[in-house]
Records
---
Amino acid sequence: SQALASCLLEQLDPSKHSLGYLYLLEAYSSGPILREQASGYLLTVVEFINSCSAEQIRLTPDKFVSVCKSFKDQVMQLQVAIQGVAPLRTAIRKLQTSSEHLTTLHPDFLLLCLLSKCYKAALSILDDDIFEVDQPRDLFLYCYYGGMINIGLKRFHKALECLHNVVTAPMTALNAIAVEAFKKYILVSLIHNGQVPSFPKYTSATAQRNLKNYTQPYIDLANCYVTGKFSELETSIQTNIEKFQADNNLGLVKQVLSSLYKRNIQRLTQTYLTLSLQDIAGAVQLKTPREAEMHVLRMIQDGEIFATINQKDGMVSFHEDPEQYKTCEMIEHIDSSIQRLMGLSKKLSSIDEHISCDPAYLTKISRERQRFDFDDFDSVPHKFLQT
Amino acid sequence: MDGDEEGVVGPMGDEAMFPNGGGDGQQQRGSKAVMGGEQMDVEAYASLYTGRTKVTRLLFIADRCGNEGMQLEALRLAYDEIKKGEDSQLYREAASKIAGRLGPQYTLDQAWADSIDRRAEQRKDKLENELSGYKTNLIKESIRMGYNDLGDFYYAHGQLGDAFKNYVRTRDYCTTSKHIIQMCLNVILVSIELGQFMHVSNYVSKAEQTPDTLDPVTVAKLRCAAGLAYLEAKKYKLAARKFLETGPELGNNYAEVIAPQDVATYGGLCALSSFDRTELKNKVIDNINFRNFLELVPEVRELIHDFYASRYASCLEYLENLKPNLLLDIHLHDHVETLYTQIRHKAIIQYTHPFISVDLHTMADAFKTGVAGLEKELEALITDNQIQARIDSHNKILYARHADQRNATFQRVLQTGVEFERDARAMLLRANLIKHEYNQRAARKI
């Protein structure tokens, strides 16, 4: 039947007859794909994705998703993940009903980006806000991969957002994705903020009770970090180094280590106007002033502190943040933030209104009402109060 | 209490925390302060107190002082005092501590101890019989007195737990305010000795709530007890307030717990470490009642005035001189370090407050300490946000730093915006997930 499907496929035009094409393609993909035909298959799928019509495929999203998934499997099997990045991105755009919609393809796309190390390609998808989710499981994977890509791009605050969403998502049973996400969350929190915040109120009880049991080495690491002593942190890392390696988190852990120096030096900028390199080395527990100079230099280059090094005296002068908030760019930035937030605010109020008209909500509310005073009556129509 | 003591010059025991500028020049005043800078005159100190607290204090001094002469003196006085009483357990303890070093008069007199125990047994039986007699008669007043007597008896014999229980039991049989006050004072006395300061606070409030007005001596006693409870709980500000409110009527009337010198010292030090300048002036320096107390410990008076007048070196010097003796005080000893650190920090903060820039060398001289050490202290205070300043380590100058409000506001605003956005988006996402789950559940039900 595969041969039949492929021969019929040639007769159809993917852009005009997308639906039919899709059915046939799906039938073709559902069987095993032989190695020799694999590259041909890949080309066919890519061409289809690029030329198909979005309205038609949205009529049977499942089949589209299934085709894309088998495409992804093929690509991974042949270890040419990079070939799958652009097509899947197009596929997502076509499948989405809006840019806020999370499809099942999102995590697959991110997976391919990760495997092929094309982090930047994922940016356009990642920067879209997600408000509508098909399957919660997709969200977990999407946010987890998204976190990893952001870590790769060194956008730690975005990574923190993604991982935070995984950890605090409603869940009734603990899943492995959440555990892994929590491990990375701890590490990224340390790098970005110097501490791990406690679970917010809205975290599910399952997460609050159980996550810590599976991530003990990381919690110990966080506790050592907070003391600010480099040697303690190093010993803590050494004791658990196999576990970190097994989780593929060793790179992140090393970044945590170097971030400790940065944090200590930043603390010095709060107290001193000028400080000798010798004293910096002593305060931050580095071995020589030369190392201190290197660290400070790197931090100045990265824009993490504002300072000047006087090599003659061996002194570093710390300066205030020169940002005066008076430039045009800053005004634009503030203005666009305001606009964005106002949009978000409107969205929130519209959702609130929507829920207050929802029958299920109203029945629940009216059941809890004790009395009906004249003051209690508001403008809710009477029919919604019938239980 | 009033005496011209010639004490031995120089502190004993612990080393001073920071180098002193000069020697202790106060002793020539012929001061009445036995808690002063000279080596403590144990006898004079002990004469301030009566009852069990005298013995407890003497034994504490003997344990802590580290100087054999003083230790033996304290133990001798303790022994004599115990022999006047009826606590055989304490007697044995004191005798074993002396270990024969004071000669044959001060060894364990087993016969005396045994006779005390025998008498105690007899008296206890007698009291208990009487009490059961009263109970069958159901005369409230007699039952109350019976329990009270039992309480007194156990207290005299050092069985504080039983004393406490019996005193508390009198509560149900108290009919007048006077009874209640008596009960409260007894319970407070035992609780202080047991170290259960929760009960002290409770019973102080109970006593203060009686409908009749209390006589000034009782009011003063209750304030002292409350102050001690706060001191123990490390609530120095509240403790200071209580001690400062104690009226001069206290005099020697509470010698079984506290001496007026103690009120002055505790109140003064707690106030210095926790009050701001205004409160210090109003409640301590301008406080006429408290002046009477401060007269008894001139060093404390001097050091408070020095602090207020920014003569920090002199103030810290007085503190150092007082330290060894304060470490021998049963209530204050574990708070001395904290209070001293707080006072020192306050001094540093107060010093830097009026200046835009401060030369660290000058400041180090004013505090009689080294520049490096001072720099470290300042660093800690700046990190703690107690001083708004920055250190120029190269030139050793401290510059006051007033945060640019405008920039800070912008920063905060942008940050708030970012956080709001992040939280709102996460919330919408979660709401969507929950709705999804809810729909699934609803779908399944159908």
---
Amino acid sequence: MSSPTSTPVGSKRSRDDIPVTRKFYRNRLSESYLQSYVDMSSPLMYGTPSSRVEGTPRSGVRGTPVRQRPDLGSARKAPQVDLHTELPSADGAVASEQAAGQKLVIWGTDVNVGTCKEKFQRFLQRFIDPTSNEDENAGLDLNEPLYMQKLEEISVIGEPVLNVNCSHVQSFDADLYRQLISYPQEVIPTFDMAVNELFFERFPDSILEHQIQVRPYNALKTRNMRSLNPEDIDQMITISGMVIRTSQLIPEMQEAFFQCQVCAFSTRVEVDRGRIAEPAVCRNCNTTHSLALIHNRSAFSDKQMIKVQESPDDMPAGQTPHTTIVYAHNDLVDKVQPGDRINITGIYRAVPMRENPRQSTVKSVYKTHIDVIHFRKTDEKRLHGLDEDSDQKLFTEERVQTLKELAAKPDVYERLSSALAPSIYEQEDIKKGILLQLFGGTRKDFSQTGRGNFRAEVNILLCGDPGTSKSQLLQYVFNLVPRGQYTSGKGSSAVGLTAYVMKDPETKQLVLQTGALVLSDNGICCIDEFDKMSDSTRSVLHEVMEQQTLSIAKAGIICQLNARTSVLAAANPVESQWNPKKTTIENIQLPHTLLSRFDLIFLMLDPQDEAYDRRLAHHLVALYYQSEEQIEEEFLDMAVLKDYIAYARTYINPRLNEEASQALIEAYVDMRKIGSGRGMVSAYPRQLESLIRLAEAHAKVRFSDKVETVDVEEAKRLHREALKQSATDPRTGFVDISILTTGMSATARKRKEEVAQALKKMIQSRGKTPAMKYQQLFDDLRGQSEAAITKDMFEEALRALADEDYLTVTGKTVRLL
Amino acid sequence: MRMWFVCRFCCPAAQSNSNPEWEAKVLEYFKGQLREKESHSWVPSLNDVPLHYLKPNSLVKFRCLVQDMFDPEFYMGVYETVDPSTKANVLRCGKYKDVTECGVDLNSRNTVTAERQTFYCVPIPGESPWAKEISFLSAARVVPSTSYVPSRQKRSYEEDDDDMDTQPQKQREPHTEPHGNGDSKRQETEAPSSQTTAPSDCSSHLDLNFPLPGERGPACLVKVYEGLDSFKLNDTLEIYGILSVNPVLTVLGEEKDPSLLLLNPTESMETPEEQRAHDPPASLVPRLHMLYARPLQHNNPLLPSAPTEDQSAFVSSFLVEMASVRAELLAYLTHVLLGDGLAAEYLLLHLISNVYTRRDVLPLGKFTLNLSGCPLNSYTERLYQIVQQLVPCSYRLSMSLHTMNSMRLVPKKDYVANRLVSGALQLARNTSLFLDETQLEQGQLDSSGVRNITALGNLISWQKVDYDFSYHQMEFPCNINVLVTSEGRSLLPSDCQVPLQPQVTPPNMEEYLTTIHMAQFTSQINKFRVYLSLARTLDYSISDEVTKAVEDDFVDMRKDDPQSVTAEDLHRMLVVARLLSLSLGQTTLSRDGWMRAKHIDMLRRSRTEQQKSLNGNEP
């Protein structure tokens, strides 16, 4: 395009109505060859866009215009070689007779058009994948040829694009797959031809905007951007990454239209390697330099430059992310936005730097880019559904084998929990709890019965003395999980946690920016200094922690985002030291509505006993002076742990078996029973749900598809352990769940009522005294009661009586009503 | 110089034989040569010699920090040129070069595409003036050609060449001479032109992206061919490579007609900002084709840099002196800290601290010191100057409200220019960061100020900096010694707080400190410098027996009063014990060492408690 004769033009206009223009898809074949050896019916014929629908709708291969595929690189041409004369000698390829002409291979490749086409048609007609679970195939009959159904879909919907999964091609015909990967520029047009023939044979009456284009995706080796190397040039690749910038639309000239100023003779010149050679002489009247470019009649295609950066998960530590330039053509333009995570299938290109005519030397560097054939957003459905498959990490077989071996060990649960944050000493139960949180429960969908999704994520709150390495544990978890977020309650606002709307400075578009909770969808959101969080911020957590969604109504955008995140929070006691005489609620001053949403609440206290001190000291000293190898021997590698969790999360979906359900029911009934003796409720359905989640997570740790009694036992144990720590009523020493559910222990409530009754009785016994002194009443009550009564309790009792409309308190006097 | 000739002759070897083995041989040859004693000091350094005194295409070295890593690029490893007159095809080598010879046949089948990566390297940020000076002097001693007198320049080159001639050389071909002379002549004519585009005033409009404000020195685009994965961001390296300042590189960038830019889609994808960042004029940002890079453990020019026998001999000889040097240094620091011996002890420990390993997220060995109760009025500034005299790399961040709100501490990716815009926290390992909190006044921190404070807090607690990649953050571990000076307790976290208790109150602080400083001989100061750098690199271990003793001790302490000693205290005491032993040149912890560590920590704690009760309301 840099040629001085080319000029950009605004729009694309129709050209003369020629049903099928002679244009060859293989740039490498010479024009003369084409004219002499290929007749119009040859499969090698490939039309160019004729005029846009000129009144009558057409059908059939011939009638449907062909859309150019700049993605396959008409911009770059190899030298044209006469296949007929040069090929057999040069490449030793076999040229044998074929029905329409000769059986030839395309220059520079081993692709034979006829065979390739046939193979692909066979693939389309026969390929069945009964085990497919891709979302694209939803609603298709898995036992029928997959792609024939898709063609049918095309005929109904009229979107002339056929996406082909390369792994299907590979499992069907490995050789065809190899050709597709190695010579996409040649093979894909052949596929196009094959599809169109097949399609119009089947659906001769359907009308499409242009001929069907094949878009292969998932070129099996989904590569990391870092692993691209010169050998991949001109091959089909699939890489994943994140869009960081998109350019405006660039009109790219495909074909220039020249008209002679003298005789009005017109001619067309195709783009060759980004340039257009202006014809010097008019072929009709032989006038030199008489041809002028007519912009309006030249053909342009849309093009967009997109910059993609490798996703942070793929990067080796300590290096900066790589970026790659990607060109999207035609209808793929504007399909992606900055911030999208995508998988790109395309052809990797390297273009030498432009030669400067005024200079004898050139920079010896190539510019590389990818011409996109297929985009696939990996986070597309995060806003409205499950995306189990997009997250799938590919595990090598050996890796799976090691993981399974590990899972088979009887003490895998203990092993994993001790591998978690080895630098933090003991706190086994807390680590176990966090381990179960990392695995999570099984996701259940009850939306059809109207209850919506059941939360599968386990939420954990750690509270305790400052300096008990809570933050360190949080940091560790944040580093361990791929989609973790770490925020501090002190610094984060409600907006930073949820989502906010901002105006994009470039496009002036309103954009929804997601905060930590939404970003950690399917991950863990670690919130440090939970107690320092402002009330308004905390209130957004209510919805997230039970419904797993976030509702936003801001700047005209009303939406509900998924935030299926586990919350791991750490809170410090209000008084700098944990007061064992107070309940959890009193110690951390968090609303009980929020607390009850945590499955497990652990106290991290500084236990004060000698044996513990000794072990702690040993652990710390060892931490400082053990060599790397010793550490590694002792503990599992963090990478193994990561893979183990990822594998279990994706592939293991345990379900309750009969005994386990029974055990759960019993456990629940037991829990309820404990309290009923003392006239209080000691368990709520929420606790049952927690138990189920924990049991499922434990089954996941074992790589088991069934939740068995052992899982329930461990879930019960852990749950009880956590309750023992956090829900013990310091006054009675009993575990009392209502501390967490209502913010006040049942005994405390009972006590309050008793005081109120005693006060009432006392007043009644005095007979008719309409007004009393506040202080005197208090002293009297204290004198009468055998238990110590504080001023707070007295005031509470007064308030309770006032609520009953028995008396009113005005200043220092109490009046009966 | 000699190596440069070899390089010139290695490449044509590819013409006859496209066997890649020669590439490995070249590297081996250079590595072998550089391993030879003193040989690396023959190579002129970009750090010391102004660019226009260096010959293009010659071997140079550069002591630098990897500031940014650009995307990998593909280049013509081998290509063919066609002579327009004779039509003869010649195979040429594109490695270690930026531009090709004329008449490249782009369609040749013999073209080999190869991959390389570009690193943007800057001189080590915060390098102390003394370190620069010493390394410059030692370089000037061996490379006379770097004299600053332009009129003498050519002469000196010839001298240099003559010197080389006298040395036995096997690889040298007889007709290399004309090449060399030709080049030095060309260089003469080029020098003035590059001088007119004066580096100093030109760099003002071209942002060279130094991490610290007010830095000077050449930035360099280093082309890396081998071992790409072994390099990491913020590594400090000594790079040996071929200097390329071909003016074509500049012209290509500047001559671009904006209208052409519009037309050419392959080039319009680069924004002007990106072009400026990735293809700055070669006269300002030279290209360096890396042959060999040596990771630097430290940048103290007084110490042998390579871990060779040389060094171990040096270390063992110095170890004997260690205790006496320590005593002298301690006395010096005590004077500096106004007669406070305990604070001096802690400052000394702080200066040799080093993150020696990480256990999952926990960095071990960091020792952030908070010196509280510092006198106001430029005392801290003076203190920094003294610290700067002792350590090879340092930076003083005055934490005034204005700097906290306006300064960029955390590097941020600029997607428009496609580069990592540096920040003051992008520092080399073992840099001393001096945070001066006495400069902080009351007022409002805005959002960027809060972010900066958070970043400093993260740096101190986890020894990591979260670089801002706009769509996500990326964590880069670091190893920076942070010293916080404040009036009261610092608002930043720290491993250890020492309230300063001045024993003397000199009427004129400036004069007092200047006299102390002047009283030291350079040789003495140099000893201190070696001592600090060396103590940091020593290995350290702890025997089972002492482990047991420490455990017992901990249990005992807890028995009396569980509140008095926590796990955190044990953490700190272990670090103090480690640093204390190392400071005495002992590589194992002795029972004595542990008791001493306990003792000074006790002293320190009683002092902080005392402070607390004095102030009353301090938490």
